[in-house]
Design the sequence.
């Protein structure tokens, strides 16, 4: 077993550059396809997941450049196209494309994502959340197809499954609660995903 041995007793000095968080990066890259203009990310870690996500973007005619720690994504000429299953299966974070594709094309066809040395990661909660929002979900031969109507998602009630799905985006929930603004009220006729998070 490998060991990391640190010998102390010396005063520390100098500078350290802190890189961007991997989990945040792999979530933000798929979200970039929802933009109408080029998107720029800095402090992006140079990891295999980022390059695989760039391959997935390329399959949809989305250009991206990665120089230093800066990643620029231009989705202005995006087209709906089959995603490369090899790249999808190589990283578990590829399921983030489900919501992004639904927001852009009202349809998402994605192979089940792969895993890492921890093992495959289930996406059951994400599928349940899309169903709770009124999406049609079907699974065939390792591929999941999700469709929404032309008006987007419809949500009859608040779902804790949905809350868990968008938990990374609900850090300001406590602030909304203080302001007396509920996360979701009654049953709106036309509810888009982003309207769940009015902050």
Sequence:
């Amino acid at each position: 077993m490998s060991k990391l041995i640190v010998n102390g007793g010396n005063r520390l000095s100098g500078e350290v550059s802190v890189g961007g968080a991997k989990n945040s990066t792999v979530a933000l890259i798929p979200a970039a396809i929802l933009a109408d203009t080029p998107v720029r990310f800095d402090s992006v870690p140079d990891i295999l997941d980022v390059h695989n996500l760039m391959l997935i973007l390329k399959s949809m005619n989305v250009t991206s450049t990665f120089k230093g720690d800066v990643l620029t994504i231009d989705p202005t000429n995006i087209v709906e196209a089959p995603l490369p299953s090899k790249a999808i299966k190589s990283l578990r974070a590829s399921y983030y494309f489900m919501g992004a594709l639904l927001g852009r094309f009202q349809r998402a066809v994605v192979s089940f994502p792969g895993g890492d040395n921890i093992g495959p990661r289930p996406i059951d909660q994400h599928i349940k959340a899309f169903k709770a929002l009124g999406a049609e979900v079907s699974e065939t031969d390792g591929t999941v197809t999700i469709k929404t109507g032309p008006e987007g998602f419809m949500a009859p009630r608040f779902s804790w499954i949905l809350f868990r799905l968008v938990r990374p985006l609900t850090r300001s929930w406590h602030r909304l609660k203080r302001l007396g603004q509920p996360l979701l009220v009654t049953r709106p006729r036309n509810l888009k995903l982003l309207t769940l998070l009015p902050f």
Summary: The CA atoms of residues 22 and 45 lie 7 Å apart.
